[in-house]
Amino acid sequence: MITKRIRSKIARGSAELAILALLAEQPLYGFEISKHIEEKTGGTLRFTLASLYPMLYDLEKRGCIVGRWQANEAGRDRRYYSLTPAGKKQLAPLREEWRSFFRALDQLAGVSHA
Amino acid sequence: MPDWNKLVRERLGPSRLTHAQEAEVVMELATHLEEIYKEQLAVGMSESQALERVLNQDVRWQLLAKNIERVKRKEEMMNSRTKQLWLPGLLSLAASMGWMMILQKVISPTQTPWKHAGVPVLPYLLWAITLPLIGAASGYLAHRAGSSRPARFAAVLFPSMVMSPIWLFILAGSHHPVQWANFCLGVLFWVVAPGAALLAGAWPFLTTSGPQTADEVINLRTKTFWLPALTSLTASMVILMISTLVGLSSIFVARGLSNQVVYLPWLCLLPLCGAAGARLSRRAGGRNLVRLAAGLFPAITMLVLGSFLTLTGTIVFAKPQLAQASIGLILGVVLPGAALSLGTLPQLKPIRSGI
């Protein structure tokens, strides 16, 4: 049985990967990050205000991403996040970790899609 | 259009973030809500429906505020905990252990001129007498870093707190029947007495509440009593250390002159220590009684410590050693007290004020 704690760790890890992978493509601000993730995963992964920002601030504190205030096309100030070199370096092993995790889970429980 | 900043600020409630951090977080969350609002309008909702949708978002604002605060202040909290507890605590531990190791290395048990119930007293005595200085340094650092009173106590008592589980471990791990008397003596010597000595030195920094300026930390009592008293004690201990190192050199040991070489120069220089303590107290505005106590502080400390050693020796070994105790009292308290008085008493005269 998966405990709540393990589930929370998995959720947190996957969310980190999702944010880093998204920001590797282009700088985005908070609302855009949540929309992109929701759209790209067909609504499977969804960030609320409460889950997104503490994670962004944590990643920023750890030096994986950096936020800068910039005006968007409409001239409104938004805080755009982009990947730092440290974040880029972390992304590759993180991807590999998750790949191994899913491979192991597939072997164990046959969870990969056909 | 609602005032999104105000709405977010109200929901987050009071925060311990800096003003700039808080403003930035509020602005960012407000823009997020505004985007959701606009998105709802874009799909054809009325303003009131869109607003209702935004306000009904499943957000536990207090938890969000707490999480943001935790993340944003993580480094700051760790830094302050290090400064307020770990640094002074580890300093206290390292200094007290290091000092004891130096004393044990320098003063060989076979050369120790004084023994009490088979225990080499001199290294322990020197160590215990100087522990208040270490306690004072640790307490000062913790106080200066703005730590709470329990944290200051913990930092100062860190060496005793480390020693406590060690003694319990010894008790639990012993394959032999527990010798309670020895165990109690160990706890007394290595946990209780050092703790009391550390607390005594740190007392001025433990009793004051609220940091932070140097003037607040070094209050009147510290200036008039503690600093002069600790100066007098430190000076006398430094002199004793030097005379001990000289006295225990092979030249004097071979001729059986160790005790005299250790003791007499120390006794002759004690008036200077007393004078230094009393003069410092006088300059800070200490009353006569305070000046006297500051000047005689080394003798007072010796009296307390000597009584403690005699009492524990009597209780644990059940052998009253009155002769030794009396000699110890004369050599360790009465004569040094008289020598300290020589330097202290002239400092009790009133300060002449210029016309």
Q: Any overview of this molecule?
A:
- The complex is a heterodimer of chains A (114) and B (355).
- Chain A has 114 residues and is an alpha+beta fold.
- Helices cover 62% and strands 14% of the residues of chain A.
- Chain A is built from 4 helices and 3 strands.
- Chain A has a 3-stranded antiparallel sheet with strand order 1-3-2.
- The radius of gyration of chain A is 15 Å and the shape is globular.
- The mean pLDDT of chain A is 84.
- Chain B folds into 2 domains: 4-72, no CATH class; 88-348, no CATH class.
- Chain B has 16 helices and 2 strands.
- Chain B has helices at residues 4-12, 19-42, 47-55, 61-72, 74-106, 121-144, 149-156, 158-173, 180-207, 214-217, 220-247, 250-254, 258-283, 288-295, 297-317, 322-344; strands spanning 115-116, 119-120.
- In chain B, helix 5 packs across helix 8 and helix 11 (220-247) packs parallel to helix 14 (288-295).
- Chain B is elongated and about 105 Å long.
- The N and C termini of chain B lie far apart (76 Å).
- Classes of the chains: A alpha+beta (114), B mainly alpha (355).
- The A-B interface holds A 29-31, 48-50, 53-54, 57-58, 61, 76-79 and B 24-25, 27-29, 31-33, 35-36, 57-61, 63-64, 67-68, 70-72, 74-75.
Summary, kept brief:
Chain A has 114 residues and is of the alpha+beta class. Chain A contains 4 helices and 3 strands, in the order H-E-H-H-E-E-H. In chain A, strands 1-3-2 form a 3-stranded antiparallel beta sheet.
Topology:
The complex is a heterodimer of chains A (114) and B (355).
Chain A lengths: L3 H22 L2 E2 H11 L8 H13 L3 E7 L5 E7 L1 H25 L5
Antiparallel strand pairs in A: 1-3, 2-3
Helix pairs in contact in A: 1-4
Chain B lengths: L3 H9 L6 H24 L4 H9 L5 H12 L1 H33 L8 E2 L2 E2 H24 L4 H8 L1 H16 L6 H28 L6 H4 L2 H28 L2 H5 L3 H26 L4 H8 L1 H21 L4 H23 L11
Antiparallel strand pairs in B: 1-2
Helix pairs in contact in B: 1-2, 2-3, 5-6, 5-7, 5-8, 6-7, 6-9, 6-11, 7-9, 8-9, 11-13, 11-14, 13-14, 13-16, 15-16
